[in-house]
Write a structure and sequence with these properties.
- The protein is built from 4 helices and no strands.
Length: 109
C-alpha cells in the first residue's frame, strides 16, 4: 500500500521484509486486504487533487537525528532492537527541538 500511495507522488518505496518467527500475531482475510488495496488506489487518485493541511507538521530538517537516536525508541519485539523512549517522549523531544530551531532562526534575523 505504501508503494501505491507514495508512488502516486513520485516517491519510491523499497520493501525490506522481515521473516516472522513462530505464529504470526495478525492475519487478515483476503477480503480485508482487497478493500485496503482498493482504498489505497482511490486515495492515490484523489490525493492528486485533495491535499489536506497538517497544523502540526515537523520538517525533517528540523529534527536532530543524533539526539533522536540517543534518546531511544520502541520497536517490535521481533526486531531484536533495544527500546528506549516512548512515542510520546519522542514527539515531545522533536517539538522541543522545533522550538529551539525557531528561536535560533528568529535570533539570526
Amino acid at each position: 500500500m505504501a508503494q501505491i500511495l507514495l508512488g502516486a507522488h513520485g516517491i519510491w518505496v523499497d520493501t525490506d521484509l522481515v521473516p516472522e518467527k513462530g505464529i504470526p500475531g495478525n492475519s487478515e482475510s483476503p477480503l480485508k486486504t482487497g478493500i485496503d488495496i482498493a482504498r489505497s488506489l482511490v486515495w492515490a487518485l484523489l490525493s492528486q487533487v485533495i491535499q489536506p493541511r497538517c497544523s502540526d507538521l515537523i520538517q525533517l530538517t528540523d529534527v536532530d537525528m543524533k539526539a533522536w537516536g540517543e534518546s531511544g525508541f520502541k520497536c517490535e519485539r521481533q526486531g531484536g532492537i533495544s527500546s528506549g523512549a516512548t512515542r510520546g517522549e519522542f514527539i515531545a523531544e522533536v517539538r522541543s527541538q522545533k522550538s529551539e530551531v525557531r528561536s535560533q532562526t528568529l535570533a539570526l534575523t
